[in-house]
UniProtKB/TrEMBL annotation:
The lineage of its organism: Eukaryota, Fungi, Dikarya, Ascomycota, Pezizomycotina. GO terms for molecular function: iron ion binding; L-ascorbic acid binding; procollagen-proline 4-dioxygenase activity. This is Prolyl 4-hydroxylase alpha subunit domain-containing protein. Pfam families: 2OG-FeII_Oxy_3. It comes from the Eukaryota. Its cofactor is L-ascorbate. Residues 189-209 are annotated as: Disordered. One of its GO terms (cellular component) is endoplasmic reticulum. Keywords: Dioxygenase, Iron, Metal-binding, Oxidoreductase, Signal. Residues 1-21 form the signal peptide. Residues 68-296 form the Prolyl 4-hydroxylase alpha subunit domain. PANTHER family: PROLYL 4-HYDROXYLASE ALPHA SUBUNIT, TRANSMEMBRANE PROLYL 4-HYDROXYLASE. InterPro entries: P4HA-like (IPR045054), Pro_4_hyd_alph (IPR006620), Pro_4_hyd_alph_FE2OG_OXY (IPR044862).
Amino acid sequence: MFTYLLALVPILLFFSDPISQLFSSSPPKLRRLPRPQLNEELLALEDATLNYTCPDSSYTVHVFSRAPLVLYIENFLSASERHHILEISEPLYAPSTVTHDAGRSTERAPAVRDSEVAVVPRTVPVRCVEDRARALQGWRAQVWLERLRAQRYRAGGHYAHHFDWSSGRGGWGRVGSFMVWVAGGAGTGDDAGAEGEGNEGGRAAEEGLEGGGTEFPLLRWTGDARWCAFVECEDGENGMGGGEERKGVVFKPVPGNAVYWENFMADGSGRGYEETWHAGLPVTKGVKVGLNIWSWGRIE
């Protein structure tokens, strides 16, 4: 009998970890691979040799959700920064594409993504926006900003529901996302077109935008009516009542404002939040210009 018990020891040791995971409520741990080589053409790496001064920025942060972390930021971009981004992006737009095979191939797919994209030159005002995005995230170690991209959506333009985080393979991926609205929302005619007749985004903003909100259909929130200044409310600006939890939200494209969200759970599992499934809803009138600020790096 003792011999049989001894024989069971290595078997129990072999299966102990899988069995413990099966009956454990803890998520499986991420199998982390060495950091991939950084592609400096795609990342907005900091340069300590540059000497520039950024103007003081004043923005207000509202916590929309804690898990996942979703922040709504008022006045993330100043009017002058918006004008500058519109101006320097104008000659650089090209049709947007979608990515396949873990980034190895791309194609035009208007049914999925109908917009134009411009990689924004890294001028001093743009670097100041980059610095602001880093600071809001806490200057996280082994996390880098990707090059900023302006996205222009004409009438009918949209981006179907998708995740930003992809697979997070090996413990590295797009850990955070900003959606910043540059031009196109209601009430922007006072300044959005100030850069002159060549500013197509500004002219569209003066005409007003219809549609084009950013939808998170799986994201839960309180339904408090005070959010109606920033999100679409079913019963008008003051008719939602307070405190009743709701599922699904559409953020209005208010120029200068932004939404930031974390894509991965900070539990060591490498799992992405399903609540970050989102879409750029179709523009029905005017032109919307947005700015994507993505952070790539080590998943916590």
